[in-house]
Each structure stands twice: as structure tokens, then as C-alpha cells.
């Protein structure tokens, strides 16, 4: 902890452990408050074996490297039909028609510990959470989108670069206060 604020612990089936340290992302507070830019990856960068957290992040890493070449800080992985799945580092959340949306686990995403806890918390607060595929048409209707994980908590995306241009979202939408309340309650 003296050198790394984030520890990642991997326990292998044979009982061995692997502990690595990581730094917090650069500009974390700025990105949490004002959002960041995302890039829509090509379908070839899908996550292999999404129902298992294998530790093989090569495709997500390559996709993110491509995105950073275009000044995007995050990448959105898609399936062969162009449905949005998750980011290279977290689960997606969208706000539309007074409710939260997140892609279903069956679509090929990592389930996410924070995603599950956040869904449970929102449901206990009588918030509607819809788990449906994020089609190219659906995402055009979102007022706000963000991604979550256990390190960054919630990062809004204000712009998503895609083949057809740019999609713009509100990184200051009041809906994000609900998600921030979850992390304050921890």
C-alpha cells in the first residue's frame, strides 16, 4: 500500500496467489467530474471467454491502444452486430427515459462485481435497471452514459467516436448523482 493504492489479487485454481500493484489512472478526479472520450472498437476486439475472468486482456488492451492514438481515453467493445458490450476496463451504464440501462451478461460481457452490487443497490432504491442489448439505435437515445469498475467507480463518457462520427452525451447529467451515492455509502 505504501507504493500502490490499488492491489490486484489473483487466486489460481491450485491455490497459488499473484498480487500486483497499480497506480490510480491519471486525471481520475477530472474524468469523474467532467467525463472523458470513448472510441467504438471494431468487432474483432471482442473479449474472449467473457463468462470467465481469465486474465487475458490482450484484445481489450490492443483496442484501448488504438483508441488512445485517436485521443480517446477509453474504448467500447462491441459484438459482431455492433451492439455495445462494455469498455476495456469496465461495465457500461446508460440513462434514458428515467431509468438505467446496462448490457446483459448473456451478451458476452464480464459480469463485474461493482456492476452487480450497483444493480442490487439501485433496485433496492426502487430504480428501474434494464438489461437489454445496446444496439446502435438504442445508444443514440441515451441522455448520459458512463462506465464503472472497482477502481475508478463511475466515469461519464461525454463523446464516443464511431464510424458515423461522434455521439455526444451529458457528463454532468443529474442521474450520475444516484451512482455516486452508491460509492459514498460503501
Label the structural class: alpha/beta
If helices are DSSP runs of H or I spanning 4 or more residues, what is the number of helices? 5
CATH topology: D-amino Acid Aminotransferase, Chain A, domain 2
Would you tell me the overall average pLDDT? 90
Instruction: Report the top-level CATH class.
Output: Alpha Beta
Unreliable stretches (pLDDT < 50, length at least 5) are: none
List the helices and strands and how they pair.
Blueprint: E1 6-11, E2 17-22, H1 28-34, E3 36-40, H2 58-68, E4 74-78, E5 84-87, E6 91-96, E7 99-102, H3 113-124, E8 129-131, H4 136-140, E9 144-149, E10 153-162, E11 165-168, H5 176-185
Parallel strand pairs: 3-4, 3-10, 7-8
Antiparallel strand pairs: 1-2, 4-5, 6-7, 6-9, 9-10, 10-11
Describe the model:
With 186 residues, this protein is of the alpha/beta class. The protein has a single domain, classed as D-amino Acid Aminotransferase, Chain A, domain 2. The chain is 24% helix and 32% strand. Strands 3, 4, 5, 6, 7, 8, 9, 10 and 11 form a nine-stranded mixed β-sheet that branches. The longest helix is centred in the middle third of the chain and has 12 residues. It starts with 5 loop residues before the first strand and ends with a helix.
Short précis:
It contains 5 helices and 11 strands, in the order E-E-H-E-H-E-E-E-E-H-E-H-E-E-E-H. It is α/β, with parallel strands linked by helices.
Amino acid at each position: 500500500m505504501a507504493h500502490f493504492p490499488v492491489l490486484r489479487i489473483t487466486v489460481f485454481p491450485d491455490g497459488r496467489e499473484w498480487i500486483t500493484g497499480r497506480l490510480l489512472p491519471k486525471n481520475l478526479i477530472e474524468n469523474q467530474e467532467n467525463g472523458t472520450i470513448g472510441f467504438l472498437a471494431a468487432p474483432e476486439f471482442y473479449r474472449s471467454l467473457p463468462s470467465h475472468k481469465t486474465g487475458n486482456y490482450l484484445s481489450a488492451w490492443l483496442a484501448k491502444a488504438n483508441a488512445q492514438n485517436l485521443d480517446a481515453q477509453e474504448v467500447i467493445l462491441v459484438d459482431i452486430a455492433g451492439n455495445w458490450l462494455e469498455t476495456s476496463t469496465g461495465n457500461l451504464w446508460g440513462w434514458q427515459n428515467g431509468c438505467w440501462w446496462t448490457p446483459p451478461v448473456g451478451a458476452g460481457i464480464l459480469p463485474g462485481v461493482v456492476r452487480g452490487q450497483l444493480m442490487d443497490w439501485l433496485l433496492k432504491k426502487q430504480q428501474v435497471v434494464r438489461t437489454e442489448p445496446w444496439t446502435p439505435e438504442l445508444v443514440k437515445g441515451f441522455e448520459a452514459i458512463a462506465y464503472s469498475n472497482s477502481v475508478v467507480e463511475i466515469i461519464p463518457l461525454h463523446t464516443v467516436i464511431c464510424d458515423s462520427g461522434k455521439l455526444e452525451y451529458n457528463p454532468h447529467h443529474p442521474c450520475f448523482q444516484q451512482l455516486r451515492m452508491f460509492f459514498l455509502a460503501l
